[in-house]
């Protein structure tokens, strides 16, 4: 079956760095997305990886290893507004998104 | 660009009534739209995939006669929850397929449905 695993909850300190891991098992693979979702709001796009390696975008970076079925989202210089759920989603061979349950990130002052 | 709107933002209705939710792509044509449901503290659950001009494809366990989807144009898809019951109370989110090569989905702001 298809499956996405990511931690349920993480806590970090303002100004610090946090890495949110995601492992996936899908029927075929056409890329991996990271979305941010604040409570009561719809997800917003953060990143997309389809090739191995690190993609950097400001304070956020995303990494992919296709051979390991693994990705991570790295958030630097954490701000209080980064408190949200972070959703990992893999695009399968039918171009359907398979969603993880999300990681709730709590930022403490 | 790539803005998706949803209307209404929230709705409260009595049990047994029907509720229609609209999803519009404002600045691009979306041949494919997706409808999700999200219960508190859970991830998105895909309900159906809607292609313009054809019948929606429903996920297993989603009743197509209860959740009517119409995708009449390239910019509008509607979800009608028929004979709503309290267990249908949820956050309903639509998304539209992006134009990028990597099939990014652009999400609407969501509709909070509460059935009394």
Topology:
The complex is a heterodimer of chains A (about 110) and B (about 120).
Chain A: E1 3-5, E2 9-13, E3 18-25, E4 32-37, E5 44-49, E6 53-57, E7 60-65, E8 70-75, E9 84-91, E10 97-99, E11 103-108
Parallel strand pairs in A: 2-11
Antiparallel strand pairs in A: 1-3, 3-8, 4-5, 4-9, 6-7, 7-8, 9-10, 9-11
Chain B: E1 4-7, E2 10-13, E3 19-25, E4 32-38, E5 45-51, E6 57-58, E7 67-73, E8 76-81, E9 90-97, E10 105-107, E11 111-115
Parallel strand pairs in B: 2-11
Antiparallel strand pairs in B: 1-3, 3-8, 4-5, 4-9, 5-6, 7-8, 9-10, 9-11
Please characterize this protein's 3D structure.
Chain A has 109 residues and is mostly beta strands. Chain A has no helices and eleven strands. In chain A, strands 2, 4, 5, 9, 10 and 11 form a six-stranded mixed sheet that branches. Chain A has a five-stranded antiparallel sheet with strand order 1-3-8-7-6, with no helix packed on it. The termini of chain A are far apart. With 116 residues, chain B is mainly beta. Chain B has strands at residues 4-7, 10-13, 19-25, 32-38, 45-51, 57-58, 67-73, 76-81, 90-97, 105-107, 111-115. In chain B, the strands form two sheets. In chain B, strands 2, 4, 5, 6, 9, 10 and 11 form a seven-stranded mixed sheet that branches. In chain B, strands 1-3-8-7 form a four-stranded antiparallel sheet, with no helix packed on it. Chain A binds chain B through residues 30-31, 33, 40-45, 48, 50, 87, 91, 95-97, 99-102, and chain B through 34, 42-46, 49, 91, 93, 95, 102-110, 112.
């Amino acid at each position: 079956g298809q499956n996405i695993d990511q931690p349920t909850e993480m806590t970090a300190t303002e100004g610090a760095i946090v890495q949110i891991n995601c492992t996936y098992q899908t029927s075929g693979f056409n890329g991996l997305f990271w979305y941010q979702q604040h409570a009561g709001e719809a997800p917003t796009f953060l990143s997309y990886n389809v090739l191995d390696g690190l993609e950097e975008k400001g304070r956020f970076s995303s990494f992919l290893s296709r051979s390991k079925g693994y990705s991570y989202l790295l958030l630097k210089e954490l701000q209080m507004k980064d408190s949200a759920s972070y959703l990992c989603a893999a695009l399968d061979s039918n171009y359907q998104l398979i969603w993880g349950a999300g990681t709730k990130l709590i930022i403490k002052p | 660009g790539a803005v998706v709107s949803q209307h209404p933002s929230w709705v409260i209705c009595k049990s047994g009534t029907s509720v229609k939710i609209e999803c519009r792509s404002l600045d691009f044509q979306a041949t494919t739209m997706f409808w999700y449901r999200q219960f508190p503290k859970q991830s998105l659950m895909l309900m159906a995939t809607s292609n313009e001009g054809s019948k929606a494809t429903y996920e297993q366990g989603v009743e197509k006669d209860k959740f009517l989807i119409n995708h009449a144009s390239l910019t509008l898809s509607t979800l009608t929850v028929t004979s709503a019951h309290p267990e249908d109370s949820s956050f309903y989110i639509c998304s539209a397929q992006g134009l990028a090569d990597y099939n990014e989905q652009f999400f609407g702001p969501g509709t909070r449905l509460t059935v009394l």
